[in-house]
Amino acid sequence: MITLLRHIHRAYSMVVILAFSVLFYPFYYLASRKPAGYGLLNLMRKLNSFLVSTFTGIFYLFEYEEPLVKGQTYIYCSNHFSNFDIMIMCILAKGRFHFMGKKELLDNPVLKLFFKTIDVPVNRDSKISAFRAFEKVGDNLEDGMSLIIFPEGRIDGHQYPPQLLPFKNGPFRLAIEKNIPIIPVSLTDVWKKMWDDGSKKGTSPGFCNIYVHKPISTRDLNIDDADLLKDRIFGLINSKLVQK
């Protein structure tokens, strides 16, 4: 019975997500035409995420180690176990922000609008593509636009309960090169409400706990420290994850 109810809730959630995507799409399109509209675009992403959360009955409780500084450019790094993670990070991020994600998102009928404009797609199988993508992200960071990235690079749709995958090196080298503080974010138990896209286990309403670690400065680091920084961020994020 519980499994059936979870799949009913998932079907309902997909309808809600689709309905709000259709509702917001014309406004997304207009705001994405020029960089001057990106601030409005992000505000609408936040609003859309909040409304989907409200109508699906899935709410987020944020715990901060320390307040985020208004106007500060950050690199937000979090684990990635659920499709809800994108909406959560939209709600969490402050100021101007953009995502970096796999190039396959260009095939998504809604997300491709973002990844052709404000967000940056990356093909990790191509060194040239990856270099150009990180170069673009670096320019955005220098322009004061925070970055949201899932350093695992993907959701593991086979391991359940999910476990943190090894991190890619790129965001940590970039943080050091651009002297940008990193905010580790532990999406501690979101997977219990929706694992991956919810197709295997369904979804359920309730509260999800989000732990926002204090920013990690990269000011005194050099490129040789990138692996140590990566391991430190991995450990912090993993320390708050609920495994069962």
Question: What order do the helices and strands come in, and which of them pair?
Answer:
Layout: H1 2-31, H2 38-56, E1 58-64, E2 75-78, H3 85-92, E3 97-102, H4 111-115, E4 120-122, H5 127-142, E5 146-149, H6 170-178, E6 182-187, E7 206-212, H7 226-239
Parallel strand pairs: 1-7, 2-5, 2-6, 3-4, 3-5
Antiparallel strand pairs: 6-7
Helix pairs in contact: 1-2, 2-3, 5-6
What is the compact description of this entry?
This protein has 244 residues and is α/β, with parallel strands linked by helices. The chain is 41% helix and 15% strand. The chain has helices at residues 2-31, 38-56, 85-92, 111-115, 127-142, 170-178, 226-239; strands at 58-64, 75-78, 97-102, 120-122, 146-149, 182-187, 206-212.
Q: Could you characterize the architecture of this molecule?
A:
- Helix 1 packs antiparallel against helix 2 and helix 5 (127-142) runs parallel beside helix 6 (170-178).
- This protein has 244 residues and is α/β, with parallel strands linked by helices.
- The protein is globular, with a radius of gyration of 17 Å.
- The model has no long low-confidence stretch (mean pLDDT 94).
- Strands 1-7-6-2-5-3-4 form a 7-stranded mixed beta sheet, sandwiched between helices.
- The chain has helices at 2-31, 38-56, 85-92, 111-115, 127-142, 170-178, 226-239, and strands at 58-64, 75-78, 97-102, 120-122, 146-149, 182-187, 206-212.
